Amino acid sequence: MTDQEKRPAPLLALVVPCYNEEDALPVTAARLTEKLDGLTAAGLAAAGSFAILVDDGSRDGTWAVICALHAQDARFRGIKLSRNCGHQNALLAGLMTAKDLCEAAISLDADLQDDVDAMDDMLRQYADGCEIVYGVRSDRASDTAFKRSTAHGYYRLMGALGADLVYDHADYRLMSRRALEALAGYGEVNLFLRGIVPMLGFRTGEVRYARAARQQGESKYPLRKMLAFAFEGISSLSVKPIRLITWLGFAIFLVTIGMLAYILVRHFQGFTVDGWTFLAVSVWGLGGLQLLSIGIVGEYIGKIYLETKQRPRYHIETDLH
Fold it and tell me: Which of 10, 63, 76, 253 is the most exposed place for a label (fewest CB within 10 A)?
């Protein structure tokens, strides 16, 4: 787009999933208030832009804080889910609510480790015609060596399995209303937005930023949850692990043929015990055939699994407009 064709400043929604963020929310709200004022003053966001705080079944006073923020400033809207549905479902609930209320939405975590000042460049790229703008970490200096190596290894593994992920990108991104409407068409129950959003296509951009240390509260993603989330991404985006089982079964079956030839040679040379030939061939042969069969059946089950589980992903208990 040329300068004359730039989009006007959008009505912006900031979507913030919250789980046990009672301590962090007052600081976060103050920072977001300042940012919304700054974006409006700079002409990057339209007047009336707002934030949606999604309480994902918190066990502390998160919802009470959200209600108090809403009473003080109507720009803070709240959604309370009926139970803890997980970060991805809470984020989706906020995005789908924002879809009909705004022209662009930016999702970010409540801990504000993602640099809110990156929103300026996101909105500039939106004005230039981008429908999706990813917030990408410029480095992982704040991570441990273990986390850096496992994170990059995971991205490489996902690429090998056919998933199109944006390296060093979490869920800090801008999506236009057009992109949100496209996202609404994806009915996966096993949700992994980092893999689904790149599938939408459209024109995309990137903004690089340095991720800060968490200032308030505790991380909601210990190693156990990170591993579960990583596996969720693999299993929800690809059936290649099942195909690997099929190929493993086929490889073992080929080894079985080689073992059969070896055993027969040894048998005719007289170096075997009675019954050993039959037992060895049976164990290897049946093992390979079973893995091959499980892989083939699993191929179909994997496809059915991805297509037919249509449970509701979340229920909204309370909505503060």
Answer: 253
Spatial separation of the C-alpha atoms in residues 256 and 253, rounded to whole Å: 5
Residues 6+ apart with CB under 8 A from 42: 120
Is the model's pLDDT at 140 over the cut of 90? no
Element (DSSP H or E) covering residue 12: strand 12-18
10 with 87, same domain: the answer is: yes
Q: Quick check: is 47 in a domain?
A: yes
Instruction: From 238, 259, 288, give the residue that closes a domain.
Output: 238
* pLDDT for residue 44 is more than 70: yes
Which pLDDT score is estimated for 243? 72
Range of the domain at 138: 3-238
- Amino acid 20: pLDDT: 93
Residue 132 sits in the same domain as residue 168:
yes
Beta bridge partners of 174: 106, 133
Q: In terms of DSSP bridges, do strands 132-137 and 169-176 run parallel, antiparallel, or are they unpaired?
A: antiparallel
For the chain, the domain total comes to 2
pLDDT band, residue 177 (cuts 50/70/90): very high
Report whether 232 contacts 190 (CB < 8 A): yes
Q: Which helix (H) or strand (E) holds 98?
A: helix 87-99
Q: Which tokens go with 283?
A: 């164990």
For residues 71 and 202, membership in a common domain is answered with: yes
Output the pLDDT for position 216. 54
The amino acid that residue 56 corresponds to is D
Residue where one domain finishes, among candidates 214, 238, 262? 238
pLDDT digits (tens, 9 = 90+) for 250-261: 787 787 787 777
